[in-house]
Design a protein that fits this description.
Keywords: Coiled coil. The protein has 213 residues and is mainly α. It folds into 2 domains: 87 residues, no CATH class; 68 residues, no CATH class. It is built from 10 helices and no strands. The N terminus is likely disordered.
């Protein structure tokens, strides 16, 4: 056996084997939250941190330890030091999110933390007043949801404004009957869910203005 083979055999021993790369070769980098969602990442001085901290402090159920600590700090009741506690909580939130940004995306336990407390969503990224009224408001002329559904029904993609797959499916379900342009919970939830989508570089143009009052 060649003397050069012995060291290579040793490399593959108890550890179960290693991949040997040639000179200049690099192991493929694993995708991180930062690389996958680069346009949704918040900078340290982003004004959205206050909003994210409020969400965390309220009904938030974080998994990352620094986010858990941030929530506990934000809920501190020492009124004399409330401002200090809030700033410390914000700093912990930012630090925790930084760690999540640079962590591996695949199999991560922190995907919900990232989406809920550490990222810019469609709703965060679009200026305007979003529709908040109930879809059960009486009268098609006063119900903003019904007006938007009618707009979706009549939409022509040749105008250059592209529908994403969910809205395209919803448009296909609409018929010529009057009842088809009345919102129900299923139709409304399609659009409400999209407000939570992460902000990315390429965003379908049509449904954003059509969710704004």
């Amino acid at each position: 056996m060649s003397k050069f083979a012995l060291p290579l055999m040793g490399l593959g021993g108890a550890a179960g084997g290693y991949m040997i790369f040639g000179k200049g070769d690099k192991a493929p980098e694993e995708e991180s939250f930062r690389s996958r969602y680069s346009h949704a990442i918040l900078q340290d001085n982003d004004g959205l941190w206050a909003t994210k901290l409020t969400t965390l402090k309220g009904e938030g159920s974080p998994v990352h330890q620094k986010l858990i600590d941030a929530k506990a700090k934000a809920k501190a009741k020492a009124k004399a030091k409330a401002a200090d506690a809030e700033q410390q909580a914000k700093s912990l939130l930012i630090e925790g999110c930084r760690e999540i940004y640079d962590s591996k995306l695949s199999g991560s336990l922190h995907e919900n933390d990232f989406k809920s407390y550490c990222s810019r969503t469609i709703k965060d990224g679009i200026q305007g007043t979003w529709i908040t009224e109930s879809h059960t408001v009486t009268g098609s002329n006063t119900n903003k949801w019904n007006q938007k559904l009618t707009s979706l029904k009549d939409h022509n993609e040749e105008s250059g404004k592209v529908l994403d797959s969910k809205l395209k499916e919803l448009k296909g379900q609409l018929s010529g009957g009057a009842s088809s342009t009345n919102w129900d919970d299923t139709k409304r939830n399609v659009t409400l869910h999209k407000r939570r989508y992460l902000w990315e570089k390429q965003i379908p143009e049509f449904w954003i203005p059509n969710l704004i009052a």
